[in-house]
Design a protein that fits this description.
By secondary structure, the chain is an all-alpha fold. It contains 10 helices and 3 strands.
């Protein structure tokens, strides 16, 4: 009764950048640059895949979904951070907070599942080459992609339903740079043990499940590659997996630090750094990894530039 008699919180204060004096002056331009690079980089990859028929394969179909997801993840957090820098006031309303949490959990859950599907695609291509066209037919690819989005949104619905049951009656300062369930549970007035239990179970299934599929896929992939006698063929097989493995390590490494680290011994500065790496830096890095390490993407980009030059030359001659 004592909790319910108090006025509920309608706005939260985000303390993630409070340790940086005049943070709005020094951080607005870097965060704006990161956001622009993230959106433009991922949009470039998505557009190249749609335009170049040589990239109309299962691997690049899933990569186009990954690019869209990285734009979504960054757009859930960074624009609000930029607005708050301009306003010089790090606040977010209760409803904005719940919406941000829902979409952030959805998109990050989808990305983990999508990375598992991409690992299965590499397994099918390297370990089952004769059956690849059947295993990864357009219909199968569409079903797998749709399943990853359903997977992420269902996972988020559970967290959001539990998060909506949290009651905030006094403290409204969130030790984070955006709204997420773990920091919200710390300032809730009512018991959040069920939420904490669900987070650990979700980490086991939603995070651990895709990670297990990825590890299992690469065990079979590595076993198949080691049986190949040609050094050149081995190198090509490894190169097709290199970008994906790099993205997997970055995503699951940062995700594990963000959600599964112990609360004791971590400062607000470390929390801010880890959350920035997970939801802001990672979406920017992914397109760079795939464009810098992938000959097909670089080749498609060169073809687009060449066609643009020819078109420009044609117009200038006319």
């Amino acid at each position: 009764m004592g909790v319910r008699n108090q006025t509920p919180v309608v706005e939260f204060i985000l303390l993630g950048f409070s340790g940086i004096p005049n943070s709005h002056i020094y951080l607005f331009l870097p965060f704006l640059a990161i956001y622009l690079v993230t959106v433009l980089g991922n949009l470039m990859i998505f557009t190249l895949i749609q335009m170049d028929s040589s990239l109309h394969t299962p691997m690049y179909y899933f990569l186009s979904h990954l690019s869209l997801l990285d734009i979504c993840i960054s757009s859930v957090t960074v624009p609000k951070i930029l607005v708050n820098f301009l306003r010089q006031q790090q606040t977010i309303s209760y409803h904005e907070c719940m919406a941000q949490m829902f979409f952030l959990v959805s998109f990050t859950g989808i990305e983990g599942a999508l990375l598992a599907v991409m690992a299965y695609d590499r397994y099918a291509a390297i370990c089952k080459p004769l059956h690849y066209s059947h295993l990864m037919s357009p219909k199968v690819c569409t079903i797998l992609a749709f399943a990853t989005w359903v997977w992420g949104f269902l996972h988020s619905l559970i967290h959001s339903a539990l998060g909506s049951k949290l009651y905030f009656c006094g403290a409204n300062q969130i030790h984070h740079i955006y709204c997420d369930l773990p920091p919200l549970m710390k300032i809730a007035c009512n018991d959040a043990h069920i939420n904490e239990l669900v987070i650990h179970i979700a980490s086991l299934f939603v995070g651990g499940g895709p990670f297990f599929v990825i590890i299992l896929s690469y065990v079979f992939i590595l076993s198949s590659i080691l049986k190949i006698r040609s050094a050149n063929t081995k190198r090509k097989a490894f190169s097709t997996c290199a970008s994906h493995v790099t993205v997997v390590i970055i995503y699951f490494g940062n995700g594990s630090l963000n959600y599964n680290r112990p609360s004791a011994g971590y400062s607000l500065a470390i929390d801010t750094l880890v959350s920035t790496m997970f939801c802001i830096i990672t979406p920017m890095v992914n397109p760079l990894i795939y464009s810098l390490r992938n000959k097909d993407v670089k080749g498609a980009f060169r073809k687009v530039l060449e066609s643009h030059r020819k078109l420009k030359r044609h117009h200038s001659m006319n």
